[in-house]
Amino acid sequence: MTDLRLAPRTGREVRVRAPGKVNLSLRVGPRRADGYHPVATVFQAVSVYEDVVATAADDISVSASGPQADLVPTDDQNLAVRAARALAARTGIADGVHLHLHKGVPVAGGMAGGSADAAAALLACDAFWGTGLPREELHEIAAELGADVPFLLMGQTAVGSGRGDLLTAAMSRGEYHWAFGVRESGLSTPAVYGEFDRLHPGRDRLEADGDVALLHALRAGDAPALGALLHNDLQDAAVELAPDLVETLSVAEDAGALGVVVSGSGPTVAALGRSRQHALVIAAAMTAAGVADSVLTASGPVPGARVVAGSDVL
Ligand SMILES: C[C@](O)(CO)[C@H](O)COP(=O)(O)OP(=O)(O)OC[C@H]1O[C@@H](n2ccc(N)nc2=O)[C@H](O)[C@@H]1O
Ligand SMILES: Nc1ncnc2c1ncn2[C@@H]1O[C@H](COP(=O)(O)OP(=O)(O)OP(=O)(O)O)[C@@H](O)[C@H]1O
């Protein structure tokens, strides 16, 4: 038997898991001078996960696996690489790291998979390099990387304002069960916001207080009320760019979903079920009708990015 104490230490790994999200409500105001739109949103983190594994390397590099891994850039455009570089710059670290992304969240699907990778990479590198940044500083770097990134660090349920990066935790009771209809060809977030501008030229303000009833439904654990209040100002724009979504939405509705909404900038369709079993029924209906390239079921809310294991690899 090998004496592990004498075995050469060839590497250490840190493993971080981060969830995807659905916007239970997304209200969008007029485009600002910096190109961003003010939003009022309620995020819920759901149990569709990105797993990011940090191991030793000379430089900062990334690889990806999962059903849509071929759609993920592996150069400096990758949000996980950008996150690692941003943390290194902030802390003066000159070490390398390799980040492997096990992608469970649909790519370019409106569920913030890339943002989840960025959040997970920040935590993974912080643990791997031992930089130990306070949560607020990680949040600041996250906000620089993208509007959705801070929420994937935080997880659970939160109200987002500003670009979606200013967060307040929201109370939520119980578990909500979702079916997601996924498309292989994604939608570009800037293109969807651009289409929103085209469809709403007269929009002059953000309706920021429209979610009082939705937040009440969450506090009460009232899934039927929540379902009826799901809302997305970007939905028309996503449907304009991907007209087939109308059928996906209506198949999920006909399967008895409590509510159906396009997730974020789309094209993933999120349908709220009455139970875990009902979410499976809705997913099966979308598959049977051929209105999604694949389906997922998940529940929420779940925690944000967290270290799930850090170990010596022999
Ligand atoms: C649609 C949502 O997922 C809803 O949570 C987010 O608003 C998008 O967040 P994200 O993908 O993290 O967005 P970023 O990577 O920061 O920005 C990408 C692009 O989306 C547009 N964008 C994004 C967020 C926002 N509040 N207004 C915008 O207009 C801008 O064109 C921006 O250049
Ligand atoms: N780690 C990454 N994983 C996936 N895509 C990435 C990553 N880094 C950069 N990208 C690029 O970002 C684009 C959008 O990817 P992502 O999966 O985050 O979309 P999304 O879920 O629609 O985002 P959001 O909901 O935050 O708007 C991809 O098409 C890809 O080119």
Automatic annotation (TrEMBL):
KW ATP-binding (keyword) present: yes
Catalytic reaction annotation: 4-CDP-2-C-methyl-D-erythritol + ATP = 4-CDP-2-C-methyl-D-erythritol 2-phosphate + ADP + H(+)
Assigned keywords, A-Z: ATP-binding, Isoprene biosynthesis, Kinase, Nucleotide-binding, Transferase
Keyword hit for Transferase: yes
UniProt GO molecular function: 4-(cytidine 5'-diphospho)-2-C-methyl-D-erythritol kinase activity; ATP binding
Enzyme class: transferase
Active-site residues (renumbered): 21, 148
Domain GHMP kinase C-terminal: 214-290
GO annotation terms (biological process): isopentenyl diphosphate biosynthetic process, methylerythritol 4-phosphate pathway; terpenoid biosynthetic process
Pathway involvement of the protein, from the record: Isoprenoid biosynthesis; isopentenyl diphosphate biosynthesis via DXP pathway; isopentenyl diphosphate from 1-deoxy-D-xylulose 5-phosphate: step 3/6
Binding-site residues for ATP, renumbered to this chain: 106-116
Enzyme Commission number(s): 2.7.1.148
Domain (GHMP kinase N-terminal): residue spans on this chain: 78-155
HAMAP family for this protein: IspE (MF_00061)
Family membership noted in the UniProt record: Belongs to the GHMP kinase family. IspE subfamily.
Biological role stated in the UniProt entry: Catalyzes the phosphorylation of the position 2 hydroxy group of 4-diphosphocytidyl-2C-methyl-D-erythritol.
Protein name: 4-diphosphocytidyl-2-C-methyl-D-erythritol kinase
